[in-house]
Amino acid sequence: MTPNIHTGQDWDKNPPHFNLYSPNNGIVLERFTDDCMGKTLVLKFGDGNRAAYGHMSSVVPHVGDSITKGDFVGETGNTSCYGSGFPDHLHYSMFSTGWNGWASTHFYEPRGFLGSHGVTWVGSE
């Protein structure tokens, strides 16, 4: 990954700690705290796509848990190396190959995937 490329979509949402849900069925691959992305959740969907949620204030499911479309997975936050200078928001990344951290080179724009699964976002981009 080239350091200057933003690998996903950021959505702001007020009030803080806005609820986040899974857009598809799958399993939890990773749950960790990253220096820059803060509390992070990585899901693998049944269609092979993967999603990473970053900057979360809370993460509900655990590694290996099965996820059903519409399951509550956590809340937006501002956990990151950027600190409180950013409002609560979600960094949402989609990728098509195995998770190897933020260095993956197979990220793609998530809005089309989310829209095709009936997901709308009520925050700002």
Q: Give the C-alpha Rg.
A: 13 Å
Based on CA inertia axes, which overall geometry fits?
globular
Mean pLDDT: 80
Q: H/E series, N to C?
A: EEEEEEEEEEH
Helix content: under 10%
Relative strand content: 35-45%
Taking the sheet with the most strands, its summary is: 7 strands, antiparallel
- Class from secondary-structure proportions: mainly beta
Number of helices: 1
Ranges with pLDDT <50 over ≥5 residues?
A: none
Span of the ends, CA to CA: 22 Å
Number of strands: 10
Question: What does this 3D model show about the protein?
Answer:
The chain has 125 residues and is mainly β. It has one helix at 111-116, and strands at residues 9-12, 19-21, 26-34, 38-45, 50-56, 58-59, 66-67, 72-75, 89-95, 107-108. The strands form two sheets. Strands 1, 3, 4, 5, 7, 9 and 10 form a seven-stranded antiparallel sheet that branches. Strand 4 (38-45) and strand 5 form a beta hairpin. The longest helix has 6 residues, at 111-116. The protein is globular, with a radius of gyration of 13 Å. The mean pLDDT is 80.
